[in-house]
Write a structure and sequence with these properties.
mainly beta; 30 strands
């Protein structure tokens, strides 16, 4: 366990549960974080500090999915108002609106930002060409229940999707056909594409499974003593984090499976957890309506966290190791 106390940064502003988070890549202006929330107002923040940048206003229902393109110039959102929207992430202006026939649960940009992938409660996956928004989308059908998530994989040549039909499926974009399918004992609660597309992290029940994304073969399982909603693998270090129904954030050693840290900072189930692109922090979103940012290595001066020597703090100089303060 860490010798220092983990002090998360709490990001307020939402009024209902936060159900999905997504980071951008690292840009010349740092990296950014977008949150999807049932209040229908996705928010954009500076990724390393959680500072609020803006709110995207226009949906008329809960927002279930959100994504940023690689350079964080555009955002996409999917919502209960049966729409997926593309936004100018700098100005906050709505650029495009794609109408569906049911709730849109998931959105994802292609690597070049030219296409938008959506997964909906219609049991369908769609790919829209953002350069030809009036054109009919490519449609992928085969799931027998609502889509939880769908994302581009392998340089946009494939799609991975998860559904309430208890399957995770791999699709070939060029042919539109299903390539492989994973049968699960319960409905998947989340998928992360990790380490530049090399791994898939799938959560279901009390299990998080890590898969080789290219071969679509399972590498290992982690069993946690709670219903898991999300997991995230560190971009470089052998660390994996989990969030679920018991309000806690768990950090494990990926290699040994040993628990490294456990924190109860939220006041409701944790719906989503994601590592930042530099791996210095991980973000969590909860039923309690907040986002929290957690340091991967407690005690490091980074973002709003300042490492303070004991004699500089309110503690006596002989009380032990440095403490960490999180600035508001």
């Amino acid at each position: 366990m860490s010798a220092l106390r983990q002090i998360p940064l709490t990001c307020s502003g939402h009024t209902r549960p936060v159900v999905h988070l997504a980071f951008s890549e690292i840009t010349p202006f740092g990296y950014f974080l977008i949150s999807a929330c049932k209040d229908g107002k996705p928010m954009l923040r500076q990724g390393d500090t959680g500072d609020w940048i803006g709110t995207l206003e226009g949906h008329k229902g809960a927002v279930w999915g959100a994504a940023l393109n690689r350079d964080a110039t555009k955002a996409a959102t999917g919502a209960a108002d049966f729409s997926a929207k593309v936004w100018d992430a700098v100005s906050g202006e709505e650029l495009q609106n794609f109408t569906h026939k049911h709730i849109v649960k998931s959105v994802d940009f292609s690597s070049d930002g030219a296409k938008l992938l959506t997964g909906s409660n219609e049991k369908l996956i769609r790919i829209f060409d953002l350069n030809q928004p009036e054109a009919e989308p490519n449609i992928f059908a085969g799931h027998s229940s609502h889509l939880k998530t769908a994302m581009f994989l392998q340089n946009d040549t494939q799609i991975v999707s998860a559904s309430d039909d208890k399957t995770v499926r791999l699709w070939d974009v060029a042919s539109g056909s299903e390539v492989k399918s994973i049968e699960l004992p319960t409905s998947p609660t989340g998928i992360e594409i990790a380490r530049n597309g090399r791994f898939l992290v799938i959560t279901y029940g009390m299990t998080a499974s890590v898969w080789d994304a290219e071969r679509f073969e399972k590498i290992k399982d982690f069993e946690i003593e709670t219903q898991l909603n999300s997991a995230s693998l560190h971009p470089e270090e052998p660390i994996i984090v989990f969030g679920g129904e018991d309000f806690k954030l768990y950090k494990y050693d990926y290699t040994t499976g040993a628990e490294l840290e456990c924190h109860k900072g939220h006041f409701g189930p944790v719906h989503t957890v994601r590592f930042s692109p530099d791996g210095e922090l991980y973000a969590s979103g909860s039923e309690d309506g907040t986002l929290r940012l957690w340091q991967t290595n407690v005690g490091k001066t980074y973002g709003l966290w300042k490492c303070v020597e004991p004699e500089e703090s309110l503690q006596n100089s002989d009380t032990g190791p440095p403490v960490v303060k999180a600035e508001a």
